[in-house]
Task: structure prediction
Amino acid sequence: MNQASASRVTGLPFILGLALCVLCAVKLPAARAEGALPSWNDTSAQQSIVRFVDQVTRPGSPDYLPPAERIAVFDNDGTLWSEQPMYVQLAFALDRVKALAPQHLEWKETQPFKAALEGDMKALAESGEHGLLELVMATHAGNTTEEFAGVVKDWLATARHPRFGRPYTELVYQPMLELLAYLRANGFKTFVVSGGGIEFMRPWAERVYGVPPEQVVGSSIRTRYEVRDGKPVLVRLPEIDFIDDKAGKPVGIHQHIGRRPILAFGNSDGDFQMLEWTTAGGGARLGLIVHHDDAEREYAYDRKSPIGRLDEGLDEASQRGWVVVSMKTDWKRIFPAGGSAARQ
Amino acid sequence: MNQASASRVTGLPFILGLALCVLCAVKLPAARAEGALPSWNDTSAQQSIVRFVDQVTRPGSPDYLPPAERIAVFDNDGTLWSEQPMYVQLAFALDRVKALAPQHLEWKETQPFKAALEGDMKALAESGEHGLLELVMATHAGNTTEEFAGVVKDWLATARHPRFGRPYTELVYQPMLELLAYLRANGFKTFVVSGGGIEFMRPWAERVYGVPPEQVVGSSIRTRYEVRDGKPVLVRLPEIDFIDDKAGKPVGIHQHIGRRPILAFGNSDGDFQMLEWTTAGGGARLGLIVHHDDAEREYAYDRKSPIGRLDEGLDEASQRGWVVVSMKTDWKRIFPAGGSAARQ
Result:
């Protein structure tokens, strides 16, 4: 626009148009929660979140942080989606054993594969950590990274939860989807930091959570770069690379993010060190724990559960200032309306 | 704004204000290079870059990609900053040996430390890979991640390049700083993918390159989470975790980014697989190589250099469609004006 034409359009309406656009284009500096967390009840849990976001985003606040430092980390299993009656990734591994069984006739007579094929969870548990590892390697390794991502997507498109009958990607927690979006609208970068496999989450985390692959941290197996018939591939090897759980979570966070988060959300003692590491930093910090206390709408479990055990976290939450979020009283609803998260 | 007030301001000036703002707020869809790459000569190298950015960002282009998929990766040593006469990180390690020597009197008589203390590069080279590894572990491990970041920052604040007499963070390539900014202005996410230590780069990459810690990929040693006197720390262990070089680069890229880049820029055969992996993907891809052919303004080296050897890359660039960027003819200037990158 040259000076002459600029002067022709100057005036109040032009200024108003300009102001309106600036308001739309620039993110509102202070935290806005009205309408942003509709599935949260107006309890102290929601208030803690809104207060914290206001503290770190309001210009002039003593705890103000620039967007680059607004890092929020979320556990996945039991924090963003259901982990009962078994980890989704275990359900995937069991189905995968069945799919691959025709190429492995010996599995009919070999544990832990026999147990997996027969759905004998007791025998499977008895195969111990070694048995589970064998199962994971047989079902997660041996193909390329692109092939594996395809297998995960295909499985998720058809697999259904045994109790709710819905795709697993619809059994994500609606209040958490809203929280992720609310934080991002306030300049946060949201990461998933899970004990689950990084490559099991990446194929759908962007679509379902709005979290791109580079913001997913998880356990991993090694890969090897190869050129096959002139085409480079990354081959998944049957060797553990990293276990992103318990004391591994701060290690994984540092390796991937390189900056200490200011907000961490978990649900089990596997998240204890992640919350500890996050909330031990200077300035305003927020640690939160989902407490599964809603058997009717989801599941109720904590101190004695073999999956997602929450014991130390419950004991220490109060003295450490961590917020325990009750599914039953803090959340209006648990899952999104049918079909919304199932689109491929 | 309610309907009544909206109708009062409706009209051409308002619409023009609105349109102007939309133009300002939304990133310009098509690539704009005018003024964005002032340190690049108007040669085919610059034209390749601008054409590629236009291809992937112009709506309607058959190669258009949404911003989430605009991933660009850059090697560091020799691509973003000078790597001669020795890798900056080696200069750091040698200075660190001197700083730590009073606590290790035995180093006076033990290789490779004796060689490091005496500046005997021949003896140092003779200590081989094992010697270098010992040197790295003694100078890079044993402290916490926060302590190490402080040591790196302190060293960079005072260390000077032997030939140019400037801080190493000022010996970054001005044309590359412009390219990083130009790509980001066109919706790209820029990553550093270096054979150098990830924790050696993160303390300054954001300030100097505009690349945040979570977008730095590099070699690493293991860390362990510990609580010391109630304060959690990550302790750096003297064990290699990952070497992000050669065939390790696609592995590191996949581990950290989880998505294949569309643009890769390197300078040595250590970057070969990174360029191969990047440019083997579908759609528009761009591979680029800095050719150090300017002994006057920087250094001239390629096929026979022990540091940053470029041999296979030169042989194959043409048939693979990779752009070889000549420092001498494609770059107007090499380094930023004095002082600009030295601020802490």
